[in-house]
Structures are given as structure tokens and as C-alpha cells.
Design a protein that fits this description.
single chain; about 425 residues; globular
């Protein structure tokens, strides 16, 4: 691994990111259970309550938790800045987001305005607390690397996505606001997926790829420009979809082009890496590129078939985001545990590759990919939806088990005496 340019002494307590990482799979399991109990015909529309509830169990409960946990850990290390009261803020934000997401799911599912109101308050508190504190830290950054730039831009899209999401939730309380729901929902979903999640993934990859795999770096021009081009294409898509709908396909093509170029260059860098060892993370990275390609094709085709395949598009592009995030979890969680134990003076600890059972990780991967492809198949033949929902649930249970296994290693080692006394360096 390469640690050049990292401010390791600025790393937050390990509990800050881990509380988000440990909770994320639980919401994915909940999404699978909701899917298992849902009427297949109701899932044919992206605007049905069942689709909205399941989607947000994944996007807020799983995706945003992993992204916030990663920002909490990586921003201080990569940018050399401390986040204000990071342990307290992450505890409060995590608690607010957990209950806010649960209240939103129950409020929408059972048509309970009071729970939706509480969800708005809690989700706003949780997201804004994290976004504000991260922005405060970014203001102190002296050297804006492409990765830090990606984090900053992704947070701007996150802010607007959250504001739009809160409005959409409010539209289920106030009927007057409901007339704008579909218009806002389109921008909300695209900016959240490509702006918040997509831009963050691109920015983090600039740093993670050379660090973990000793792979060639992305060219400076690409690192400095691709996030700008993605951002401009998202703004262009929003303007054309709202005012010049006939031309929105141009913005779609532009957006897809930049993400496709990222996927292609990424795979080339992986192929040319110096550290040729293959692991589960690489399988996820390669799979994510396939999902991105297929999802992009469906998204462009939607333009000519009146969004007939928008649910399939959501599954495939969602699979692109989920695949990268799960792959990163398998790399980041063991690294965090090794890094923090090593910093405390422990030397006799398992290596990163030994912290998660490779066999269980591959089983989890196979079930995950099979379930996502099964969901696409079930859009056309819904008889097997329950089977694929069950496969997804089992996959997420195994993911939860794999993360807990690594965390238990940390707890077990901490109960022993360190090999070296590091107190003099504190």
C-alpha cells in the first residue's frame, strides 16, 4: 500500500465510521424483507409507495450511511484537517438518520403524517449536521487534491438532493405540494445517484486505486476535469428535462459518456496494477462496470419508450453504486482495523486479507449479483421475485456477518497488551 500524501494522525476515532458501516447492511436487509412482502405488480412503477419505500431503505439506509462513514474517515486523512467534535456529531447524526429513515418508511407505508413529520425533522437534522461539519472542515483545506474536490462537489449535490427529498416527503403530508412531486423526484433521483454517490465514488477512486493496488494514477488532466464535466452535464440534464425535454437525451449521453470513460479507464488501471493479487473487491469493481454499462443503455432507451424500463434502469444503475460500495467496504473496514491497531502499538495482528473469510465474501458476492439480475428478470416475469428477494436478504446478512467478524477481531486484539507502548507518541 502507498500512504504518500496522507495525514494519518488526523484520523477520527474508529467508532465514527464504523457505526455507519455496521448499520448500513441492516437497512439493506430491511429493504429485502420489504421487497419479499411487497406485491410484485406494485413494483412496476417507480412512483408506487412500495417502490419508494424500498428504494429509500437502500439509498438512505445503505448508500448514504456508507458514504457518510467514508467521508468521516477519509476527509481528515486525505486533506489533513480535523472535523469539529467528530465523535459527538457522528453519534447524534447516526441516531437521527436511523430513526428518521425508519419513521419515513413506516410513515409512507402506513400513511401516517405524524411519522412523516418526525422523519423530516430527524433526516434534516442528521444530514445537515454531517454536511455542515464536513463543509467546515473543507474550508480549512489548503491543498485541494482531485479527491478532496470530488468530496466537496458531491456534498453540494448531496445538499440539494436532501432538500429535494425533504420536499418530496413533505408532499405526502401537504396535498398542495404533491402537484410538483414527479418533477422534483426526477432531479432528486438523478442528482443523488450521479451527483452525490457517483461523483464521490469517482473522487475517492483517484486516491484508493493507487493506495490499495499500487495501480497507475489517473492522468492529471482527467482528474482535474472529469468531475467538472459530470457536474455540468447534471445541471444541463436538469435544465433540459425541465424546460426542453426533447433535448434531455443530449445531456444523458454526455453524462453517460463521462461515467463510461471513468469505468473504462478504471478497468485499464486495474489491469496494469503492480500488485496483481485478485480479491473480492476487484470482482465487485468489475461487476459495477457491467451494471453501469447496462444501466446506461436502458436509461438512454427510456428516452424513446416513455420510461417503460425506468425500474430496470434503477436496478442496474443502483447495482453499479452498490457494487462499488460493497467492494470498498471489504477493503476499507479491514484497513481501518489494521491501521488503528497498528497505531496503538499492536504488531501481532491479522493482515487485512485475513480479517474477512474469502469463502463467505465470494458466496455473498454470488448471491448479490444473482439477486440483482433476478430483479431485472422479475420485472418481466414476476413469479420468481420472492426467490431473488430471499437471495438478496441472505447476501446482506452475510455482508453484515463479514463486517462484524472484522470488528470482533479489533475488539479481541484490544483486550490484549500492545507489543509496543505508544503512549510516548500520543
Amino acid at each position: 500500500m502507498q500512504f504518500n500524501g496522507l495525514s494519518l494522525e488526523q484520523a477520527p476515532p474508529i467508532s465514527a465510521p464504523l457505526r455507519f458501516y455496521l448499520t448500513a447492511p441492516l437497512f439493506a436487509i430491511l429493504a429485502g424483507i420489504l421487497l419479499l412482502l411487497s406485491d410484485a405488480s406494485a413494483l412496476q412503477s417507480r412512483y408506487s409507495i412500495d417502490s419508494i419505500v424500498i428504494t429509500h431503505a437502500i439509498t438512505i439506509g445503505f448508500m448514504s450511511f456508507i458514504m457518510l462513514g467514508s467521508l468521516t474517515q477519509m476527509l481528515p486523512v486525505l486533506a489533513g484537517v480535523k472535523m469539529y467534535r467528530v465523535d459527538l456529531i457522528t453519534k447524534a447524526s447516526h441516531l437521527a438518520l436511523v430513526f428518521g429513515t425508519l419513521f419515513m418508511i413506516m410513515g409512507l407505508k402506513f400513511e401516517m403524517p405524524l411519522l412523516n413529520t418526525l422523519a423530516i425533522i430527524l433526516l434534516a437534522s442528521g444530514f445537515f449536521a454531517m454536511i455542515i461539519v464536513i463543509f467546515m472542515a473543507i474550508k480549512k483545506v489548503k491543498n485541494f487534491t482531485p479527491t478532496v474536490t470530488g468530496m466537496s462537489v458531491s456534498l453540494i449535490f448531496a445538499l440539494f438532493s436532501v432538500l429535494m427529498g425533504l420536499f418530496l416527503l413533505f408532499s405526502y403530508i401537504d396535498a398542495d405540494a404533491a402537484i410538483y412531486r414527479n418533477i422534483v423526484a426526477n432531479t432528486h433521483s438523478v442528482w443523488a445517484i450521479f451527483g452525490f454517490a457517483g461523483v464521490l465514488i469517482v473522487g475517492v477512486t483517484f486516491q484508493v486505486l493507487p493506495m490499495f493496488y499500487v495501480a497507475p494514477k489517473f492522468k492529471d488532466f482527467y482528474q482535474k476535469r472529469v468531475i467538472l464535466f459530470i457536474s455540468l452535464s447534471l445541471v444541463l440534464w436538469m435544465i433540459t428535462s425541465l424546460f426542453y425535454e426533447a433535448y434531455s437525451v443530449v445531456a444523458k449521453l454526455w453524462l453517460v459518456l463521462f461515467f463510461a470513460s471513468f469505468a473504462a479507464i478504471f478497468l485499464q488501471k486495474i489491469k496494469n496494477r503492480k500488485r496483481k493479487v485478485s480479491d473480492i473487491t476487484l470482482l465487485y469493481y468489475k461487476t459495477s462496470s457491467v451494471f453501469l454499462a447496462l444501466g446506461s443503455i436502458f436509461w438512454i432507451v427510456d428516452e424513446y419508450y416513455f420510461s417503460e424500463h425506468i425500474v430496470v434502469t434503477s436496478i442496474l444503475i443502483g447495482g453499479f453504486i452498490l457494487s462499488i460500495m460493497i467492494g470498498m467496504l471489504y477493503k476499507i473496514v479491514p484497513f481501518l482495523i489494521w491501521f488503528h491497531l497498528n497505531g496503538m502499538g499492536y504488531m501481532s495482528i491479522p493482515t487485512m486479507n485475513e480479517m474477512i473469510d474469502k469463502k463467505w465474501a465470494r458466496i455473498q458476492f454470488a448471491l448479490f449479483v444473482a439477486s440483482l439480475m433476478g430483479f431485472v428478470f422479475s420485472y418481466y416475469v414476476d413469479a420468481y421475485l420472492s426467490l431473488f428477494a430471499l437471495a438478496f436478504i441472505i447476501s446482506m446478512v452475510i455482508l453484515q456477518y463479514n463486517i462484524i467478524t472484522a470488528v470482533l477481531i479489533y475488539k479481541r486484539v484490544k483486550k490484549t497488551k500492545p507489543d509496543f507502548d505508544m503512549s510516548a507518541f500520543a
